Recover the amino acids of this structure.
């Protein structure tokens, strides 16, 4: 048998093994959904009987269950595909964006990493964390270096330029249930000083809680769209 034939056979076996792991993970996720539904039902009847719900954590984590197996690194990307990210955490991050900083999703752990852009610049310049005196600077630079050197495990979240809160104010003003207040809100957001006038108007009519609820839903929608666009599983 020639080496070329051997390589081709080996490749086909690898593809078949990859497909099998993919199918098994998909089936495991479907089983987990059934288990979650059952746990929810058990919790419901426990509360109805005035008992403490037995399942505080409804979900398991396929990533954590199998990550100590020797074959895990080879198929890690498949496991990560089936590890959902907390949508609310992404939404909260998008609501707290700052200039001159970036946020990354670590797809291996589901952790959201905040990093100042100056540390990324230091990492690009090849600075050594051990040469810094401040422990906070050392830790931040080490994270920045890891982001640059292991970019395959990080996904960049939207920055401040990608989030348009003015459009959210427009949506709230245009769709507010009271026509008079809606007209006043639309007038408030016209021209310079729109944000201040909008805030003053919602305070005047005592509808700030309705605005916060609307804004929270808008950020959740943005987070969900980002997850969909980047094929990130969320919950």
């Amino acid at each position: 048998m020639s080496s070329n034939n051997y390589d081709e056979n080996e490749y086909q076996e690898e593809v078949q093994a990859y497909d099998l792991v993919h199918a098994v993970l998909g089936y495991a996720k479907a089983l987990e959904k059934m288990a979650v539904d059952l746990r929810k039902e058990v919790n419901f009847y426990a509360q109805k009987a005035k008992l403490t719900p037995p399942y505080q954590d409804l979900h398991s984590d396929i990533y954590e269950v199998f990550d100590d197996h020797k074959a895990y690194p080879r198929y890690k990307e498949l496991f990560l595909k089936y590890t959902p990210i907390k949508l609310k955490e992404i939404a909260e991050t998008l609501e707290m964006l700052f200039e001159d900083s970036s946020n990354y999703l670590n797809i291996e752990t589901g952790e959201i990493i905040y990093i100042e852009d100056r540390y990324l610049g230091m990492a690009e310049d090849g600075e050594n964390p051990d040469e810094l005196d401040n422990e906070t600077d050392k830790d931040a630079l080490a994270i920045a270096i890891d982001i640059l050197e292991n970019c395959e495990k990080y996904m960049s979240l939207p920055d401040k330029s990608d989030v348009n809160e003015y459009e959210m104010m427009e949506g709230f003003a245009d769709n507010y249930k009271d026509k008079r207040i809606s007209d006043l809100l639309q007038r408030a957001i016209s021209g310079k000083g729109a944000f201040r006038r909008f805030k003053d108007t919602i305070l005047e009519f005592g509808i700030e809680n309705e605005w916060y609820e609307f804004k929270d839903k808008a950020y959740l929608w943005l987070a969900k769209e980002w997850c969909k666009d980047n094929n990130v599983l969320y919950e």
